[in-house]
Design brief:
The chain is of the alpha/beta class. The chain has two domains: 139 residues, Rossmann fold (3-Layer(aba) Sandwich), CATH 3.40.50; 170 residues, L-2-Hydroxyisocaproate Dehydrogenase, Chain A, domain 2, CATH 3.90.110. Helices cover 43% and strands 20% of the residues. The protein has ten helices and 14 strands. The protein has a six-stranded parallel sheet, with helices on both faces. The chain is globular, with a radius of gyration of 19 Å. The chain starts with a strand and ends with a helix. The structure holds adenosine-5-diphosphoribose. Adenosine-5-diphosphoribose (APR) binds next to helix 1 and helix 4. Adenosine-5-diphosphoribose binds next to helix 1 and helix 4.
């Protein structure tokens, strides 16, 4: 059986990390694409030279030519600029919308049957634009947001209780901005509601940290944003697609009526298998969470409007 092909559009911090993960997890051949000549080629060569040590046989190619992504099964997009201290994800919208407009054309032309995962921020707007420009059906264009946000929630709860992260389940829904919605009513420690272990006040603090977790890392790094955890999150999505695992993962999916949302990308639990986004799973939200969900949706709508105005003016 031929190996699968994974195209990584953007060979920066997240792109390079994803290439490494694809190789060590033996997910398939990798093409790293970037506009900076030398960067994807250099990273590809470096990774390839780890193959005998890690014992993988994948082809890893770096390129500045879209033709090289031809026939990709999965395209994962990180092209764009990342946040600097003091910036919100939304501050990236003008620059990254222009970049994503070009990237989506390249994917449409050269990998017309691929499953596309968008990571570039502001995520909810960038994934909307990618679907629009490629014209791909909604099951084949999805955004990475909630796996990472949920992983952050699980990490902080596990740290607080000094238990294994494997014992904590949690989900964060909504937009991938400061008003994302950690769903406390679904957060459990080995099947038991988290509120039995941690006070409401302390959970408020933990959830505030979850919302600002990306910003906390940007403030520390100073020259860029988180990359190990976003890379892991997107590769989990790619793996579920490539291996038809049918994992239920919180992702930014295009909603048409589910959760009362129509015509917007919003993070909700979805099932990812060989058919792409095969199902949207609707979970109960507590009244307080539903309110936060609506606030987050209003913010995403504003963000898409801002993007449209900027694109129309450029
Ligand atoms: N086509 C392809 N790649 C591009 C383009 C383009 N038109 N424009 C810029 N790039 C490349 C840059 O050259 C850079 O190598 O995108 C890469 C981005 O890498 P980093 O700056 O290291 O950013 P990274 O940490 O990988 O984050 C990328 O993901 O999580 C989001 O907010 C983050 O929007 C940011 C994106």
């Amino acid at each position: 059986m031929a190996r699968k092909k994974i195209a990584l559009i953007g060979a920066g911090n997240i792109g390079g990390t994803m290439a490494h993960l694809c190789a060590v997890k033996a997910l398939g051949d990798v093409v790293l694409y970037d506009v900076i000549d030398g960067l994807p080629q250099g990273k590809a060569l470096d990774l390839l030279q780890s193959a005998p040590i890690e014992n993988f046989d994948a082809e890893i190619v770096g390129t500045t030519k879209y033709e090289d992504i031809a026939g990709a099964d999965v395209c994962i997009v990180t092209a764009g600029i990342a946040r600097k201290p003091g910036m919100s994800r939304d501050d990236l919208v003008g620059t990254n919308a222009k970049i994503l407009s070009q990237v989506a054309v390249g994917i449409k032309k050269h990998a017309p049957n691929s499953f596309v995962i968008v990571i570039t921020n502001p995520l909810d707007a960038m994934v909307t634009l990618t679907k629009r420009v490629t014209g791909f059906p909604k099951n084949r264009v999805v955004g990475q947001s909630g796996i990472l946000d949920s992983s952050r929630y699980r990490t902080f709860v596990a740290q607080e209780l000094k238990v294994s992260v494997a014992s904590v389940s949690a989900v964060v829904l909504g937009g991938h901005g400061d008003d994302m919605v950690p769903v406390r009513s679904s957060c459990q420690v080995s099947g038991v509601p988290v509120e039995r272990f941690i006070s409401g006040q302390r959970l408020d603090e933990i959830e505030a940290r979850v919302r600002n977790a990306g910003g906390e890392i940007v403030a520390l790094l100073k020259t860029g944003s988180a990359f190990y955890s976003p890379a892991s999150a997107a590769i989990r999505m790619a793996q579920s697609y490539l291996q038809d695992r049918k994992e239920i993962l919180p992702c930014a999916a295009y909603l048409e009526g589910e959760y009362g949302v129509n015509g917007y990308y919003f993070c909700v639990p979805v099932m990812i298998g060989s058919g792409g986004v095969e199902k949207v799973i609707e979970i109960e939200l507590a009244p307080r969470e539903r309110k936060l969900f609506e606030q987050s949706l209003a913010r995403v709508k504003e963000l898409v409007q801002t993007m449209d105005k900027l694109l129309a003016a450029s």
